[in-house]
Design a protein that fits this description.
By secondary structure, the chain is α+β, with helices and mostly antiparallel strands. The chain has 5 helices and 9 strands; from the N terminus they run αββββαββαααβββ. The mean pLDDT is 94.
Length: 214
């Protein structure tokens, strides 16, 4: 057994107080996002964990890249026929989470996922490098394949088929917008007395704000 009980760290880089937060969680997310980006521009600050409830009833989490956020919510792109796509089609309740260890911060977002409009998906797909476009076409994401060679051979064939041609977005590939219902901000503090501030969406489009015990 690997005993990790002595893995400890003191969190002392910042604080999260009610006197210094906006009424809207998206504004606070924007502030934190760019602070982390400025602090360490070498990492993928937009990497987030997406958790869904699978068709087998089990939760599953995986890391994807956030591609846009606004007052409407958080957008990422994937294959609609993937495991997570099928999960969201059955149960659109999802959780997004960001962990930024360099600033001892986490953000946890509960929300509802829905497909973006086709023009939004088209616009992002058109902005991708050619290799990424072909990767989206060739991959039947989450399906069992016989080998790596199988995938690479199919890619080589697609490269020949689309040589000198535009690559259209596959109908089974596009964006999801996650509309937040609850957003929790976690700031590490000394002695495990971490700051936790939770925003909860209200029926009048405002947000209630609570402090949670660490």
């Amino acid at each position: 057994m690997n005993d990790l009980s002595n893995y400890r760290k003191s969190y002392e880089k910042s604080e999260l107080l009610e006197t210094n937060i906006p009424e809207d969680p998206i504004n606070l997310f924007n502030r934190w996002f760019h602070e982390v980006e400025d602090f360490d521009g070498s990492g993928e600050v937009n990497a987030m964990t997406v958790s869904t409830i699978g068709l087998d009833g089990f939760p599953k989490s995986r890391v994807v890249l956030l591609k846009k956020f606004s007052e409407e919510g958080f957008i990422f792109y994937t294959n609609y026929n993937s495991e997570k796509g099928k999960a969201m089609a059955q149960n659109p309740n999802v959780c997004l989470s960001f962990f930024w260890p360099e600033m001892e911060r986490q953000v946890i977002i509960k929300g509802i996922a829905q497909k973006t409009s086709e023009n939004i998906s088209d616009g992002y797909f058109d902005s991708r490098p050619e290799g990424s476009k072909l990767g989206a076409v060739v991959s039947n994401q989450s399906e069992v394949i016989p080998s790596r060679t199988f995938l690479e051979d199919n890619l080589k064939q697609l490269e020949k088929d689309y040589e000198g041609k535009s690559i259209p977005r596959p109908e089974n590939w596009g964006g999801y917008l996650v509309t937040p219902l609850q957003v929790e901000f976690w700031q590490g503090r000394a002695n495990r007395l971490h700051d936790r501030i939770r925003y909860t969406s209200q029926s009048d489009f405002s947000w209630s704000i609570d402090r949670l015990s660490p």
